[in-house]
Model the fold of this input.
Amino acid sequence: MKSISSLWLLLVLFFGMVACKNETKDPVVTETESESSIVAINDSVLSNAVIYEANIRQYSPEGTFDAFTADIPKLKDLGVQIIWLMPIHPISMEKRKAQGDVMVADIEDPEERKKYLGSYYAVADYQAVNPEYGTKEDFDELIATAHDNDMYVILDWVPNHTGWDHPWISEHPDYYTQNEQGEIIDPLNNEGESWGWTDVADLNYDNTEMQDAMIGEMRYWIKEHNIDGFRCDVAHGVPQAFWEKAIPQLREEKAIFMLAEAEIPEIMTGDLFEMSYAWEGHHLLNEIAKGTATVEAFDDYMEARTKKWEDNDILMNFVTNHDENSWNGTVNERMGDAQDALLALTYTMPGMPLIYSGQEYDMDKRLRFFEKDTIPKTKGRVWPLLEMLGHLKANHPALSGGKTPASYERLTTSEDQKILAFRRKEGNREVIYIANLHTTPSSFTVNATGNYTQVTTEEPMALSPETTHDFAPWQYVILSN
Done:
């Protein structure tokens, strides 16, 4: 099934040997050599990767590429190997949103109007960068710095719609969905009603010329700016046939990583997307934190997940992202005292864990979506926790969650409604996660035997079916052999 091209690895090694064999006394370092400083993204990278969602606008007071680039080396401490950049393109002025259903044009005060920067997802030009973030040269420096630090960069791509002043609106109106009056419309739901995304125009995927143009726009960033793949917004809203056409063409340029904002197995078939969102799992974590779901629901979810997805399908696990933070609440709002146990769960269960800008700094505010805002930059409780979890994820074979994931075995306990315990195993290496996912203390036994080390404290912990453990609400341990 899907495998990020082993051929690319062989080519990298081959040309590396050729370069060494023909080395002159005074080698000239070229831009091409600089771009080759990182091995092509591959299955091995994905096995133990952590992905970081970078909100350039809100990452720093400046809101620029350069400000984020300066911090890229710090992300290595968190085990980050993939950086996902939220949309970097210019944002349309026409029908720009201020908040909810309010358009910027509806605001009378010109100074007040300036505050509203619009939605990242109302793209005005697929081949340009938002001047508020910097220049293409600044963007290239970001890519080069990431590669120099052994990290890959994927772009957030918006294939479903464009902003209303995108050049295609006037040059190719047939690229868009139109009503009976021939007017371009905003996206509609399955009932034919507007989603409320009135700041964007819906693209018509029945038009094959538009499809080819879209592929060309995506190819541009791979060829000209050496990016490593795409996170595709509302990927299930685009016909499957388009991805079957587009992705193989994009992979002709280089090995790339494809993340779908979707949760349907079909989009992962063949050589298409490597990873999808674990939305169902995320919502379940919110419910467990609120006390409206039990550990039994998590067990049902994991059983269904095994049946629904193929072994080499990767799901992205998360406690927050840009949508959750801005619209549904901070991690602290949604998960409260459960947040650390659930964060640790996203790292130890099968899949790839996500960090969202500000999460590493204990961010406890909802970032404004249409306005300038700034994340905190003071390390607190979460940074060392992410550092520990990232190191464990990157280095422990039992936490492999990529194309060939380590095994997952539910360990039964005497309190399975409250206590979640499971073993991940690769060969003779093990990681065990045990947590009291409940608001009350619990005394319980675990059906497991062995001597382990607690990862967080480095203290020993023995397991046997006869040993009783006392856990406070939301207490958890991660054990390694």
In short: The longest helix spans residues 208-225. The chain has one domain: 6-406.
